[in-house]
Amino acid sequence: MPNNNFVWTGSEITLDVRPDRLDIRDRQFTPAVRHLHPTCPSPDWVAAHWQAYVDAGMILNQGSAGACTGFGLSAVINYLHWCENPDHQQVSPRMVYHLAKFYDEWQGDDYVGSSCRGALKGWNKHGVCSRDLWPFTVHANNTAVSWEAPKTGWEQDAQTRPLGVYYRINKDSISDMQAALAETGAVYVSASVHTGWYLSSYRQPKKPQPLTNLDQLPLIPAQAQGIGGHAFALIGYTSQGFVVQNSWGTGWGCQGLAILTYEDWQNNCTDAWAVSLGVPSSGVSAYASTDSYTPFQSGPSMLAGLVPPMASRRSGPPQHKKPVHAAHSLPPLSLDQAYGLSLVMDNNGALIQRLVAFKNAATSAEHIVYHAPLAAYTQHKSKRAFKLTLFALSGLADEDTTLAHIASLAPYFLANGSYPIFLTWNSGLGDSLDQLLSSEFSTAGKSTAQDMSIESYAATNGGKAEWTLLKQNAELSVLNDSPPRGLHVLARYLQKLANEIGQDHMEIHLVAHSAGAQLIGNLLPYLKKLKIKTCSLFAPACSLDFANAKFLPVLESGLIARNQFHLHVLSDELEKTDNVAQIYSKSLLYLLARSFEARHKTPMLGMATSLDADFFSGKIKDNAQWNPAAIPALRKWNDTYWGKQLPRGFAAKGQGLTPKQASTLHIQQQRYVHSGHEALRAGHTTFDYDEKTISATLLRIAGMKPDQTLPYPVGNLNL
């Protein structure tokens, strides 16, 4: 994000605020019909209060930092609170600015500056804490500390200063701006700053006269050429212009205040917002639900004190019919805590910042992958190996739904002795496919002919391109880029954690569902120095070419023992009764194999027919399940996966495997699975909602036998 510098009193001030992008969802400020006074505030109010306001330290100084979005809004918040209570503590401009970058329009965090809307969104989501709890230090030479972490209790304190409402003001209407100031007392704005803002020529005595009237404030001389964008507070108006409260200290203007003429405002303004203070909440801790069970079968909750408060998301889980009796369930984590166990990546494999209390995505990842697991290990240290599970989610659901599901899944991993780290994307392929198919096809026309039309249409109208992009992004996520991408950071901190705990005292367990296999497969070459104990793939959405390149080498080398490599798949009958978007009448894997992969009818690792010799040895002409060009890949995989004896005839119904074969190839045969609360129609998307599949995975992670009972049995996975 480009920025410019403004040199004032020997220091360079970064001007980096950017105009808010157009958003038709913005609510517009409509002034009340009432008379406006000639000045605002009234002369009596100014005489009685403004000097006390200045003496209370409410004129802020951002130093050389490009943090005006935080300081400008903090000035507004301070002013509104101080007018109600002169004992008000300064709010934290660090928190406001940090959250502005968290919620603004630009991706990533490797930039300075932000937007007014981003700052308001942050205040709206989280409130704002005191400056004491989240400091912003500016040294005597005007340099600012680049980052300071919040202190304990900041999140509860922030809930005592919520935002009420915020409305965009028609910045070009002087009357609307004046009305907003008269109604609220202060307005949050941004504008282009010019050399007229250099007010050092405004001479003040060493001991300034008490600030008692608006006539004491200097005019900012108008200039034609702007230098850069700046956010600040307006706290009044006169016949000449608006009263600016700047954030360059009390040496600017008259004790930090000046008049911006109406003409200058209209020539240079970019954004204006009216706000109100909200009703404080009770400040209940987000950690309340985590102490009701005991992970690792001893001591307090593993999460207590380890998972920081983070950005909240709100969304419900998928809706299903056929409710059944609910089993006893562990309470879910808060969504904030779920983010504390999750690495979220964007479409390029780069990490996304989701933890409010950390400087950026890189430091968040270090906490999630290294510091928090290490603290858990230290807290629950025992002679047993520390079990850490990497769970790559399907990539089908949106981020809100995925994190809600993680909140339900995580307690069962923690309670049964495994520390989970979840891997996911910030967008879901499922929604895109729903929109693509529903725009052209009807749910009423299901047939083989329509399926063939869908396969052709989706391949040429964005579906294949989106699937190809997802696979490419999984590959990109291992790059040591600048900043490093998600899986590279994960592998690096896992190795650091193993070095700290001891290579022989830490076990890695891999779990992936659907497209999550793309992440785990690309990660494997970077885990060669670690001890991988088990690998469980749920309907892996990857071709056998990919499996031969990524999974086969680790099986051949022994990095993953063959008897600890588990596949959970649907029977072919269930694949053919599944659906995509209620329109395509087969499973997602069928659509990928026949439409989205490089060749038509590409065998997928997550399909039982890819593992059944009837479909690639001797009966090719009869069933035509796979492209003949894929037969070498099928044979290569199965010769290693099965060894000398290739099983046949089991794919259709999931029956016919020997006990040994069925011990690692788990074929879903029943039409319904259970989430612990309700019955779900078995399909590609239900594996990680199935209590039996999750229980079997947790049993093997715990080193228990399949017929044993978990210390904390899996309950409701669909909360």
UniProtKB/TrEMBL annotation:
Domain of life: Bacteria
Taxonomic lineage from the root: Bacteria, Pseudomonadati, Pseudomonadota, Betaproteobacteria, Burkholderiales
CDD domains noted in UniProt: Peptidase_C1 (cd02619)
Protein's name in the database: C1 family peptidase
GO MF entries: cysteine-type peptidase activity
BP terms from Gene Ontology: proteolysis
Peptidase C1A papain C-terminal domain ranges (all copies): 57-269
